[in-house]
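User: structure tokens for this one?
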Amino acid sequence: MRPTSGENAATYHRLTSAPVVLQVAASPVSPALVLRPWRMEDVAALVEVSRDRALRRWASSGVDNDSDGTRWVQAQQQGWAAGDRFGFAVLETQPGSVRAQLVGNVVLKKVTSGKPAAEVGYWTAAHARGRGVAARALEALTDWAFDAFEADGLERLELLHQVDNLASCRVAQKSRYDFDTLLPAAPPSFPRDGHLHIRVRERLKSSRLLRTG
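Assistant:
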């Protein structure tokens, strides 16, 4: 599938010339993370983690079985193909383990060439919460987004969560997404008031990366 409008065609060709894989180094208390586009081989693990009540409370779409999981992964792949939504499976790699374990998801969405703002989102599997997975993955996604879409005019990333999602608010704060606005509820997709957090591209950091890259 190719972008139909042409406005994101350059971005599409740039991002699909090679798989995008983001690496997050291990910390003294947390294993290394790998962020890569969702694959069909992730369906079984996706269905398993989606049984968590807390995740189902905040997720915009439910995954109850393999058919739901397949459609969900296909939607992520279609977002990559269209060049406007980029979902990453977050995998945790343990020393000596043959297979990485699914621990979460991060996504960059509402990407349009020439538009200065896009949106980020994330969730963490129940078994991986409390270890900083979401914040570390979001930081990697943020750096990648500003670097990958700088030429398309991306200047600002927005993060939205409902007011009672305190864990998501903590992730935003840890990842330097500053609180900006209290948003009114918009049922059914956003049934409660929410927070808008914003992070602006760091120009000095970007220019330094260009000089030393």
